[in-house]
Request: fold
Amino acid sequence: MHQNPFIFFLFTLPIYLLPSRATADYLIGVGSYDSTGPAAGVNMMGYANLDQSTAGIHFRLRARAFIVAESLDGPRFAFVNLDAGMASQLVTITVLDRLSKRYVLSANI
Reply:
């Protein structure tokens, strides 16, 4: 994982030694979803000959979400990560559209 555990220890040590100034309690939620597509017969988006297609799954793709809120009724921050080489703008627009029907979204998106 880390090339030199001692270097990693030196960089992370201040995190444990410094006193925490945060006194607020946050609500934190996490989620994960298997977004793996078909196992075979998919084109390789230009990373192979045009005749080639996939023949199995190397590893599963996941979508992960992390949500932080100050209270149940307060503002929320969400970070979503998708294990994919590319995601089209249509995916982003569709996700934001579905979220806006369920929640009040900030204009800072």
Observations:
- The mean pLDDT is 77.
- The chain has two helices and three strands.
